[in-house]
Design a protein that fits this description.
Layout: E1 21-23, E2 28-31, E3 39-46, E4 64-72, E5 75-82, H1 86-94, E6 123-127, E7 130-134, E8 141-143, E9 150-153, E10 170-172, E11 177-183, E12 192-198, E13 204-211, E14 222-223, E15 227-232, E16 235-236, H2 239-243, E17 250-251, E18 257-263, E19 272-276, E20 280-281, E21 286-290, E22 293-301, E23 325-332, E24 341-344, E25 350-355, E26 366-371, E27 393-398, E28 404-408, E29 413-415, E30 419-422, E31 432-440, E32 445-452, E33 462-466, E34 475-480
Antiparallel strand pairs: 1-5, 2-33, 3-4, 3-34, 4-5, 6-7, 7-8, 8-9, 10-11, 11-12, 12-13, 14-15, 15-18, 16-17, 18-19, 20-22, 21-22, 22-23, 23-24, 25-26, 26-27, 27-28, 29-31, 30-31, 31-32, 32-33
């Protein structure tokens, strides 16, 4: 095999791992794992199986590698497996890469024309008995949530019609429904969107097709008790970019943003668009109804946060404009105007927002985020996050008061996205733990950290050793043991 590129995307902490593993009873070097935690924390990372076809490649284009941390009786076991996508299987058979640049089929080997290019590397969610490994340019890939054996491409028992599916579906714990969407739903670069309600039985129960104001990276969305909300932000593309070999997406500073509001069981005729000034937003913390008003909470920045998706007019990346703050966008369904009101919720700079997922779509008080504290020292050159920001702080935001409780990881580590673990038997919001992977940037290995979600500043209640380096993940979720007992249909 040829060597991987000697570039930032393939060296240092970002070097490919390519390790499948089973490690029983991980060592706990500080504190103790609460015995009542019973379930699995799944997370997925881009991890390239082979060197890229081109000279370099974007970090987001690696093959999906799922890690499962199984908690039971105060111990934690680790299992790690590739997601065996169509792409992965064809390249493994060939012994080298066949698929080219991120989201650019024009760069592929001609032998794989028309094959799903998805890497299943962005998120993992359990629904109706299967673990769905997700990448938004392709269908889900189903896996067994315990063994991590790949089942295959998943179309919800023949009920999903689109070739794409979001990496950020939402589970409504009150109804058991999985709410989701697909963009570029009639082909690459198209404005077509489809919204899905998938029932507890794992089948599509409702769908709505419509068009976006313009093609963009529709990465996430919000749900409330009555609505779903789609934020259209100008990370966009066209065939000219792909033909010129540019990164698929670029940020367009000339376009406005939009919020599309659709009743959860509505039709395309019920969709209403609101409009706001140019800015950047990707992930969603939460959304909820308040009378006729809809609140949508997201880390928003005045400029592009993604240096790997550069300005479409080649303006230099601005790290100051890229600093995102948790912001509440509010629209009024009773108003005759289409404006979006905005209010900053905190002065923290950060991203990867999370909540107690049982309160998705409901009024809530507790939000969690990875923050960048620029006043703290950083003693490892070059080993920052994919955005170039140094996520060195785990923070809790009291949404009602704005108060912040935070914990700094130290000068030689960074943090990956947290996930919430509810305390068994408790229905109180925020009663539970946060689980988060620590990147030990000097030792080139990882720890798994557990925090009391109500007292982050006290530090971890347990530090669990991972005796290898986990490549930085994108997203993950915890599923309780009782939800793992449903048989795979």
């Amino acid at each position: 095999m040829k060597a991987f590129p000697n570039s930032r995307n393939f060296t240092g902490y970002f070097a490919p791992s390519r390790i499948e593993a089973d490690i029983a009873d991980l060592e706990v070097i500080q504190g103790a794992v609460p015995a009542e935690i019973d379930g699995i924390f799944h997370r997925v990372a881009p991890d390239p199986h082979f060197p890229p076809l081109g000279e370099d490649d974007i970090w987001f284009n690696g093959d999906g590698m799922v890690t499962a941390f199984a908690f039971r009786d105060g111990r934690v076991d680790l299992k790690q497996r590739w997601v065996e996508t169509d792409k992965f299987k064809l390249e493994r058979e060939a012994g080298h890469a066949l698929f080219g640049a991120y989201r650019n089929p024009l760069t592929d080997d001609e032998s794989v024309e028309g094959v799903y290019r998805g890497t299943a590397n962005t998120n993992v969610v359990v629904h109706a008995g299967v673990l769905l490994a997700l990448k938004e340019d392709s269908p889900p890939v189903a896996m067994d949530p315990v063994s991590l054996k790949t089942i295959g491409n998943w179309d919800f028992h023949g009920t999903m019609k689109s070739p794409t599916f979001t990496a950020h579906p939402k589970i409504d714990t009150r109804t058991g429904e999985l709410l989701a969407f697909g963009y570029a739903a009639r082909g690459l670069l198209t404005r077509d969107m489809v919204y899905y309600v998938i029932g507890p039985d794992g089948r599509v129960a409702h769908e709505v097709w419509f068009e976006l104001p313009y093609y963009c990276m529709m990465h996430d969305f919000g749900i409330t008790e009555n609505y779903v909300i789609f934020h259209v932000v100008p990370i966009t593309s066209n065939w000219e970019r792909l033909e010129q070999g540019k990164p698929h997406f670029g940020f367009d500073t000339e376009r406005d943003i939009y919020l599309g509001v659709l009743p959860r069981r509505g039709t395309a005729e019920d969709l209403r668009w609101f409009r706001g000034p140019n800015q950047f937003a990707s992930h969603v913390m939460n959304a909820f109804d308040e009378g006729t008003k809809i609140h949508f909470d997201t880390p928003a920045a005045s400029g592009n946060m993604f240096p790997f998706f550069p300005d479409i007019n080649d303006a230099p990346f601005d790290p100051v404009a890229a600093q995102a703050h948790m912001t509440r966008w509010t629209v009024d369904m009773a108003a005759n105007e289409d404006g979006i009101a905005a209010r900053r919720l905190t002065d923290l700079v950060g991203e990867f927002p999370r909540i107690d997922d049982r309160f998705a779509g409901r009024p809530y008080r507790h939000g969690y985020i990875l923050a960048q504290d620029k006043d703290k020292p950083f003693e490892v050159g070059g080993a920052k996050s994919a955005t170039g920001l140094m996520m060195n702080t785990l923070a809790h935001i009291d949404i009602e008061t704005g108060a912040v409780d935070s914990w700094w990881i130290g000068a030689t580590s960074s943090l990956q996205e947290p996930a919430f673990i509810p305390r068994p038997g408790s229905t109180q919001e925020g009663d539970g733990w946060l689980v988060v992977v620590e990147n030990l940037l000097v030792e080139m290995r990882s720890n798994l950290l557990l925090f009391d979600a109500r007292n982050l500043s006290a530090g971890p209640v347990a530090t669990i050793v991972v005796p290898m380096r986990l490549r930085p993940a994108l997203h993950g979720n915890f599923v309780a043991g009782g939800q793992l007992q449903a048989a795979v249909a």
